[in-house]
Amino acid sequence: MKLLIISIFLIIFTRQSLGFFVSKDEVLTNFQLNQSQDLLYLENMAHSAFTVFERAYPKERIIFEIQNTDSVNAYASFDDNDFPLVSISTGLLKESLIDLDTIALIICHEVGHFYGGSPKQFRGRSTKLSWSSAEGQADFYATAVCAKKIFPLLPKVVQTKELGESSKVENELLDICKSEECLRIGLASYKLASIYAKIKFWDQVISLKNKDRTISNKINRGHPNPQCRFDTMILGVLCDKTHIQNQGENPSLSCADSRYKRPTCWYRSSSFRDTLQNYE
Length: 280
What we know:
two-stranded antiparallel ribbon
């Protein structure tokens, strides 16, 4: 028995001495494997969120894809067969604030480009309007309509990371939200706006209280600043009843409650009645 113990010790000692115990290549391989496993988990989570979307929108045919690129991006377009397409990059899925709720909200935003209505984006650099709703309008649709259909069908997110600033926002949301659904969508909105802030090198902290009170002199059809986008999403969350303005060729989704209409940091109505930041 003594001889056996000594032999085992010598083998272990020799492997350590010669670098065989855990080599640099083994460490790199294990790291790559862990990264691959993490990415697979994130991709499965994204597909799960889209499956829930399909349950909530059974009559709509939208193609979902994940692009294997480090670019932090998501977009709405049409595939080669002219079916609506929502694409999310693996770079976006790797963002630290990404979870099931945030992915679901990203999908809702991209779907908002198809169903959000006016105002529409311009086609490239021209003044012709495209098929796509403006970014701010897609943000409003995402939380006012889509998320309210999807989130009740999503499994509850179990937080495995420190919430940090998100915890403070969550406590502030408790003061304005009357339901668990509102709280959950609101927190996902904060995380998504924080991701936008990181991408845009926005150096201000996204805040529920320090709203963007800019009064725009025209509709911003591009990307509003991250705080303005957060304001828009929160107004959508708080809007209990939406309605369609301008029935006809250019329908526009808005809130029936004047307190929660689209914010003036990006939106200006033709009559300019939406001139106040509303959720106080």
